[in-house]
Specification:
There is one protein chain. The protein has 11 helices and 7 strands. It is an alpha/beta fold. It has a single domain, classed as Rossmann fold (3-Layer(aba) Sandwich), CATH 3.40.50. It has a 5-stranded parallel β-sheet with strand order 1-2-3-7-6, with helices on both faces. The protein has a two-stranded antiparallel sheet with strand order 4-5.
């Protein structure tokens, strides 16, 4: 691992991101939020934005910045939380989530000054966008890298595999895709909806450099991100939907749900003990 990474600091930042998610979910009230699928991405996004990506909140349009695309756009709670931690906007903005006139909506809407590079919501579109951006960077001789976070259920979409084929064809070694493998979709398990248990083999067959990690282990994630390759890279992150709180872990009722005050209070107590 690169010298200078502080895993304890990363752990503390993950706790802050989870607390932000709780506060946003409570503040959203009856609008509710995509709670479970956001919590499974916390370590992935924290490693990316804290240690891997070149981003600067004081210069958000910097041409040499790395680009991030949240293809599973419903996981925006975690995305907004890490952008707040990086100084792209204030706490009052974070707590305006899903409220009238807020720029923080239930799926990301492009706002580059606030760190939101691309709009997203319709699943299966983000990787195609990432391929285009990565290819453009190559043609411009720009060394910026492109990172795309997908859901495992999202890999049901045929457009994902068209993009995967294109990335390999164009040898986009500046493109990294991360699959959040929490094994649950909106209406059931992957096995029930569409058996995707051999996803790793599929990505390998599309000529991607594929690495399997524990998606909640920051050291494994960092090593995977730093692994150099001549191909597009796929990080298959095994995660737990609703990670961090006993009432939401592996509980698909929390795909999209209202967080009560009592649940918030109980979750804060759990978080304090972690």
């Amino acid at each position: 691992m690169k010298k200078g990474f502080n895993l304890e600091n990363l752990k503390n930042t993950c706790k802050k991101v989870r607390k932000n998610i709780l506060e946003m979910s409570l503040s959203a009230g009856a609008s509710s939020s995509h709670f479970g699928g956001s919590l499974s991405t916390v370590e992935i996004l924290t490693c990316l934005f804290e240690e891997i990506m070149k981003v600067d909140s004081s210069n958000p349009l910097w041409s040499e910045r790395d680009r991030f695309i949240l293809s599973k756009g419903h996981a925006c709670l975690a995305y907004y939380s890490i952008l707040y931690q990086k100084g792209f906007f204030e706490k009052k903005d974070l707590l305006s989530f899903e409220k009238n006139e807020s720029f923080l909506l239930g799926h990301p809407v492009i706002n580059k000054e606030k760190g939101i590079e691309f709009s997203n919501g319709s699943l299966g579109m983000g990787l195609s966008l990432g391929v285009g951006v990565a290819l453009a960077m190559k043609k411009k001789s720009n060394n910026s890298k492109v990172y795309v976070l997908l859901g495992d259920g999202e890999c049901n979409e045929g457009s994902v595999w068209e993009a995967a084929m294109s990335a390999a064809h164009f040898k986009l070694n500046n493109l990294t895709a991360i699959v959040d493998n929490n094994k649950l979709q909106q209406t059931g398990s992957n096995l029930e909806i569409m058996n995707t248990e051999n996803l790793v083999d599929k990505w390998k067959s599309f000529n991607w450099d594929t690495i399997v990690v524990d998606g909640h282990n920051t050291e494994e994630l960092l090593n995977a991100f730093l692994n150099k390759t001549s191909k597009p890279k796929l990080i298959f992150a095994k995660t737990i939907k609703g990670k961090g709180f006993s009432f939401s872990e592996n509980n698909n009722d929390w795909h999209h749900k209202i967080l009560s005050q009592k649940q918030y209070d109980d979750a804060i107590k759990e978080l304090d003990k972690q």
